[in-house]
Specification:
With 508 residues, this protein is an alpha/beta fold. It folds into two domains: 3-85, no CATH class; 146-506, TIM Barrel (Alpha-Beta Barrel), CATH 3.20.20. It has helices at 3-24, 29-33, 39-46, 48-56, 67-77, 158-171, 212-221, 250-256, 276-290, 304-313, 337-342, 347-360, 378-387, 396-401, 424-427, 432-456, 482-485, 497-506; strands at 98-101, 146-148, 175-176, 192-196, 224-230, 241-243, 264-266, 294-298, 322-326, 368-372, 391-394, 470-473, 479-480.
């Protein structure tokens, strides 16, 4: 019998078995009513994100990141041509809330290779010294206004964490560990922000409570530059964190101190404090024991906490060294849909409200402000600085730079790019050495193009950008001043003259 006849018989037998199964099963009405062909419905649904990416949507339609945004990140990370030809495909005149950057007629000169002031890494130092206000022993000025936001080992693969850390080391960017603790893959030279979540992973005792001794051991062992207390994040505030059991390998179990193969649940609240007053005591105790700047990260909802925090900090006796605000559009490895879609304010609204509260209490020139939530693009970062950010932290954009294809499979443990998975076969495809170069390229390109915009506005540093450098268009051919839209008073959004004076001394 010919081989093709055997193949035909096998295929027909398989289809017959599927037909019988579909007709007899009672779980899926579609399959009972449309045997065999009904399976194509589920196949098409499973590859929906991929279909939208490559076939269905236009360059600007897809979310969270559209095709233009992904293309820019991919090209930037590979040091390829990231320019776009023929003009914008955005409808500027009919797009509400469209931000326009008002360039200067007299832009600043951009140093070229071989000229004084040229820097091939395009480093941009922070306008403020983190920890200076509270006189922390290890206060420092971050070398880069771009940092990598919190993503834990466990949520990300070991290869992804290593690639990010090596890339951060080369580009002088800070690397936030995320709440999963410090792993060996964080130890490749980059300065770390050690994040403490509600589970206190990496700094907890055998009962799951916070351990100052464990924290100090980690700080002494690794290149930790700052401590971050995570109150919440934009994608799932008030819910806590979930690391699916499929990602809890023996190695992750050891690092976090949790059972192998079981869902790792971080509580929705901290057990070391329950109000703003106790939080500040916790902050000061950590700062005293470690000498490091201590900050907080949070999404924004109810404002009463921020009002109370600012009132308590106004005396100057206690305080956080930095505040990281995460917008509701921020990402996560796994979260209930209702939290991602409806809980917490988007970045521009949430940040402006917190900043305004701090400004009214005269704290805005003392605290370092970090923004996150889809800010990993030059124009988004620029407006964040105009609002009062001193730094921006990027996460998913960094994932894209090391190979993420936006498959939206993070919660399954089956990331096809080996970024957000612990599957050994999938992870083997991610080369940390090669991908670290791409992460560094992305960070450097982002800083470079951010400085293009800054110089086009006629100033020398993102901290000098104000809301007067922007207009907001509506669908009626009108423009609005962002300062009025967000209720900012004159001078708000600036790091302050004293900080700018010191910064100018560092600029070429």
């Amino acid at each position: 019998m010919a081989w093709w006849m055997i193949a035909l018989i096998v295929a027909a037998s398989f289809l017959l078995l599927v037909l019988v199964y579909d007709l007899l099963q009672t779980k899926h009405a579609i399959l009972r009513n449309f045997p065999i062909i009904g399976h194509f419905r589920y196949i098409l649904e499973s590859v929906g994100p991929e279909l939208r990416q490559y076939i269905v949507t236009s360059n600007d339609e897809e979310r969270p990141f559209n095709r233009d945004q992904r293309s820019w990140v991919y090209a930037s990370s590979k040091k390829e041509n990231n320019y776009f030809g023929f003009g914008t495909d955005n409808d500027l005149e009919l797009s509400p809330n469209y931000f326009i950057i008002k360039h200067s007629v007299f832009p600043l000169h951009e140093p070229q290779k071989g000229e004084d002031g040229y820097d091939e890494k395009h480093n941009i130092p922070c306008a403020k010294v983190m920890g200076a206000w509270r006189k922390r022993e290890h206060a420092f000025r971050p070398d880069s206004v771009i940092s990598i936001s919190a993503m834990s080992f466990g949520s990300l693969s070991h290869a992804a964490v290593e690639a990010i850390n090596r890339g951060c080391e080369y580009s002088n960017a800070l690397h936030n560990t995320g709440e999963g603790g410090i792993s060996p893959y964080h130890d490749h030279g980059a300065g770390l922000i050690f994040q403490l979540g509600t589970g206190y992973f990496g700094a907890r005792d055998e009962h799951g409570r916070f351990s100052m001794e464990m924290l100090k051991e980690r700080v002494e062992r690794y290149n930790v530059r700052a401590i971050e207390i995570k109150l919440s994040q934009g994608a799932k505030p008030g819910r806590g964190g979930v690391l699916p059991g499929a990602k809890v390998t023996p190695e992750i179990s050891k690092i976090r101190g949790i059972p192998i193969g079981k869902d790792c649940l971080s509580p929705a609240y901290h057990r070391e404090f329950s109000n703003a007053d106790e939080l500040l005591d916790f902050v000061e105790s950590i700062a005293k024991e470690t000498g490091l700047p201590v900050g907080i990260k949070s999404a924004v909802g109810d404002l009463s906490f921020w009002e109370e925090l600012a009132s308590l900090m106004e005396s100057g006796e206690r305080g956080v060294d930095y505040i990281a605000i995460d917008g509701g559009e921020g990402g996560t490895g796994a979260a209930p849909l209702v939290f991602s879609d409806h809980v917490s304010l988007p970045f521009k609204v949430g940040f402006s409200r917190v900043y305004s509260i701090m400004a009214r209490h005269n704290l805005h020139e003392k605290i370092v402000f970090i923004g996150s939530g889809k800010l990993g693009f030059p124009q988004s970062a620029l407006f964040a600085f105009a609002m009062g950010c001193d730094m921006v932290a990027v996460a998913r954009e960094a994932m894209l730079s090391i190979g993420c294809i936006q498959a939206q499979r993070c919660q399954t443990g089956h990331c096809p790019a080996g970024v957000a998975t612990q599957n050994k076969w999938l992870v083997r495809g991610l080369d940390p050495t090669q991908k670290s170069a791409r992460l560094a390229n992305y960070v450097i390109t982002l800083r470079k193009e951010l400085m293009w915009l800054v110089r086009a506005c006629g100033v020398a540093h993102p901290g000098m950008i104000t809301m007067e450098n922007f207009d907001v268009l509506d669908e009626h051919f009108h423009t609005s001043n962002p300062r009025e839209l967000f209720g900012y008073q004159p001078g708000w959004g600036s790091p302050g003259e004293e900080n700018l004076k010191r910064l100018r001394e560092l600029l070429p």
